[in-house]
């Protein structure tokens, strides 16, 4: 099974840390963020497609054409046109197969990601205090997603998308509409798709989004605590 990791952004909110390196290469406990994401990939994943852009050579040089026993392909996203546009660039490499999609912005756990693979189509969610910064999901009591909205001013739930999704070729039947900021978000494609197909919201036990420089220290503290707990 293939995984698609979106890692093309500049990470403007992470400056000055991203002035000389891409956000996925910022180190947390001595390893790039993207390395941690590879660590969270279940064994079912045998190939990874990384969408690259900003300072992409650093990513290519570190991960090369295979990493952690997984084959790697790269797709260049020349312009910042959003998550949906990035996924559409990858479409020829997916061969209409089911795939895992993640962002290079967050720390996840392998156990949580594996839970998503149990469903034909799924999206991992986490309850948060302020969901306005994320894609927000509303779901019924059985976990079926009813709607998704990107960064709503008035959220209808506190379930935030963690960025992990299990999708297949159906998603490409729902092109995203252009956001006022000029980008195309996968959230819009998903909000259209759930009217026709069942997408299951899977609750994560662990998720740590990396958005600002001060999050690095917090993330290291959280990871150290998790490592101690696992001993």
Tell me about this structure:
The chain has a single domain, classed as Spore Coat Polysaccharide Biosynthesis Protein SpsA, Chain A (Alpha-Beta Complex), CATH 3.90.550.10. The mean pLDDT is 92. The relative contact order is 0.18. Helix 3 crosses helix 5 (186-193). The protein has helices spanning 33-39, 56-63, 83-94, 110-116, 186-193, 214-230, and strands at 2-7, 27-28, 31-32, 47-52, 66-67, 70-76, 99-103, 106-108, 122-127, 135-139, 145-150, 159-167, 200-203, 207-209. The chain is an alpha/beta fold and 231 residues long. It is globular and about 45 Å long. The strands form 3 sheets. Strands 1, 4, 5, 6, 7, 9, 10, 11, 12 and 13 form a 10-stranded mixed sheet that branches. A two-stranded antiparallel sheet has the order 2-3. It has a two-stranded antiparallel ribbon with strand order 8-14. The protein contains 6 helices and 14 strands. Strand 10 and strand 11 (145-150) form a beta hairpin.
Task: Find the structural class using helix and strand composition.
Answer: alpha/beta
The tally of beta strands, per DSSP, is 14
Name the CATH superfamily assignment: Spore Coat Polysaccharide Biosynthesis Protein SpsA, Chain A
Q: Characterize the biggest β-sheet.
A: 10 strands, mixed
β-strand percent reads 25-35%
The fold-level CATH name is: Spore Coat Polysaccharide Biosynthesis Protein SpsA, Chain A
> N-to-C SSE series?
EEEHEHEEHEEHEEEEHEEH
The rounded Rg comes to 17 Å
Approximate shape: globular
Number of domains: 1
Provide the helix percentage: 25-40%
CATH class: Alpha Beta
Count of DSSP H/I helices? 6
CATH architecture: Alpha-Beta Complex
Could you name the ranges where pLDDT drops below 50 across 5 or more consecutive residues?
Answer: none
Query: What is the rounded distance between the termini?
Result: 30 Å
What is the average of the pLDDT values?
A: 92
């Amino acid at each position: 099974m293939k995984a698609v990791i979106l890692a093309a952004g500049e990470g403007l909110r992470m400056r000055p840390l991203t002035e000389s390196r891409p956000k996925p290469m910022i180190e947390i406990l001595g390893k790039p963020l993207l390395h941690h994401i590879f660590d969270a990939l279940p064994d079912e994943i045998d190939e990874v497609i990384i969408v690259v852009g900003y300072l992409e050579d650093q990513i290519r040089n570190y991960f090369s054409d295979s990493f952690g026993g997984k084959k790697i392909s790269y797709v260049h996203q020349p312009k910042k046109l959003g998550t949906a546009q990035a996924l559409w660039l990858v479409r020829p490499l997916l061969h209409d197969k089911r795939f895992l999609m993640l962002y290079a912005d967050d720390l996840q756990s392998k156990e949580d990601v594996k839970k998503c693979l149990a469903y034909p189509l799924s999206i991992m969610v986490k309850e948060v205090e302020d969901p306005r910064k994320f894609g927000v999901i509303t779901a019924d009591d059985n976990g079926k997603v009813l709607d998704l909205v990107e960064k709503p001013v008035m959220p209808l739930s506190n379930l935030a998308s963690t960025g992990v999704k299990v999708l297949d070729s159906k998603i490409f039947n729902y092109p995203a509409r252009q956001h006022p900021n000029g980008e195309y978000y996968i959230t819009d494609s998903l909000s259209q798709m759930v009217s026709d197909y069942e997408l299951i919201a899977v609750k994560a036990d662990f998720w740590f989004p990396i958005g600002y420089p001060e999050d690095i220290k917090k993330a290291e503290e959280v990871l150290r605590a998790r490592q101690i707990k696992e001993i």
